[in-house]
Amino acid sequence: MVRLSRYILPLLCAFCLAPYAAAHSLKLFVQESHDRLSGHVYFSGGIPAQQALVALHNDDGQVLMQVSADQQGRFELPRSANSATWVIANSQDGHIVKWPLQAVETAKPAAEAMPGTTDAQALERIVRDAVAKEVAPLKLALQQQQDRAKLSDLLGGVGIIFGLAGVYLWWRSRQ
Fold first, then answer.
1. With CB atoms 3.0 to 4.6 Å apart as the test, which of 8, 43, 57, 167 could cross-link to 47 if both were Cys?
2. What span, in angstroms and rounded, lies between the C-alpha atoms of 127 and 129?
3. pLDDT averaged over the chain?
4. CATH number at residue 31
């Protein structure tokens, strides 16, 4: 009996703590525009992943370009042709995260459009880039807020602990 509980208690503790193993998981946020990619690499809770390697990959897994994140976890990459499909961040301590990229049109940027004329595509691209630039901080804040532990998560964990303790005490009283 004592031998069995000696193995069950550590197993139950490991089972209860397993969801918290991702408490320091790596997160990636990428803001895409037609000519560049910028973003933020951070751990859960908003801690910047300083000097994390951020690479642009194609479907074959080849690295097209690689940069290091700064002290605040920010990075910027020039957008390559449609061959780039993933941004992959590596914190160099075992944490890796991927961000899929959307395909972009290869038309000339609006600045290279014919002087004095503004076609609908160039105007659309200008508006899209301006809106994306303004909305990017909101998207990042929302993503970081969703990554934080909430009171309901904490209460759920406490409930699981009390429930497992109750099952254990019930099992002990039956013997």
1. 43
2. 5
3. 77
4. 2.60.40.10
Phi, psi of 54, deg, nearest 5 = -120, 125
Phi and psi at residue 27, to the nearest 5°: -120, 150
- The pLDDT confidence band at residue 54, using thresholds 50, 70 and 90, is very high
Answer yes or no: is 37 within a domain.
Answer: yes
Instruction: Give how many domains the chain has, as a whole number.
Output: 1
**Euclidean distance between CA atoms 74 and 40, whole angstroms:** 4
Residue 41 structural domain: 24-148
Q: Which letter does DSSP use for residue 83 in this model? A: T
Query: Residue 68 pairs with which residues in a beta bridge?
Result: 53
pLDDT in tens, 75-120: 998 876 557 788 899 988 888 989 888 765 544 444 454 555 568 8
Model pLDDT for residues 128-168, shown as the tens digit of each residue: 778 877 777 777 777 766 666 677 878 888 999 999 999 99
3-state secondary structure 136-152: HHHHHHHHHHHHCCCHH
Angle at 124 between CA 123 and CA 130, to 5 degrees: 90
For residue 135, how many other CB atoms are within 10 A of its CB? Answer: 11
Q: Six-digit token pair at 82?
A: 């449609």
Strand order in the sheet with 96-100: 63-68, 53-58, 84-90, 96-100
